Amino acid sequence: MSHKDGKKQTGIERLENAFAVCKAEGRRAVSPFITAGDPDSETTVAILKSISTAGATCCELGVPYSDPIADGAVIQSSYTRALNAGMNLEKMFSIVSEIREACEMPLLAMASYSLIFRSGIEAFVKRGESSGLAGFVVPDLPLEESDELDEQCRRTGLALVRLVTPTTPPERAREIAKRSTGFLYCVSVAGVTGERTALPDGLIDRIKWLRKESNVPILVGFGISSADQAREVATVADGVIVGSAVVRCLEEARDVETMANAAGSFVQELVKSCQVC
Q1: Which of 30, 150, 164, 177 could cross-link 214 (Cys pair, CB 3.0–4.6 Å)?
Q2: Distance CA 80, CA 39 (A)
């Protein structure tokens, strides 16, 4: 997508537009998470097309890593399947390039900082920009060590989404909120990703507090596994991030078409639940 003057939009601008559409339509954002290359590139592309058609605002594309830090069993298993099938960074970027030709849904790569650092920060960000990524989510990047990646992202107009957890002290959370671009990722629970049966105590109040500190949309992730939970979060947050529940529904499918349809149906259900007016 381009500006009216023909200038190519930045990743941050594409995210801003996507959130603006949600606001205009009276709904909260829905950002699914799927693993790049699980079980293969062809299926990943089909799933991304399906969830885009279903109304996903944006999507986090997990970059498989042999030693994930914050991921629970469901996503760890998906990483293992993708790595065993030969998924790597170049193939991930190729998936992004293909999807950018097919739909406008912004994609963010969720990657361990060690992968970015090993690739060379400037080179990684430039490759992300050229492939069509809208930005990055880097869950293991401390605020104090983020300046170089932050600078490269701002230079290329890509989002660098920051994470705030239940154990983040208020002053630190305030600084993280100020420096996050694209959106702010509010982690709902301490621990690893995975489906939970109920939202944690204090989450709603924490979101309300963060809203006062953040200039970007606040999306809540970790543990949201149903449309009902998404609806509850949508009353105060700007959107929801759903990962393990999406990946699990893909595990039960047997072929590309079935997987794509399963993901699309689940995302469509989430989108409907996030209609607030």
Answers
A1: 177
A2: 10
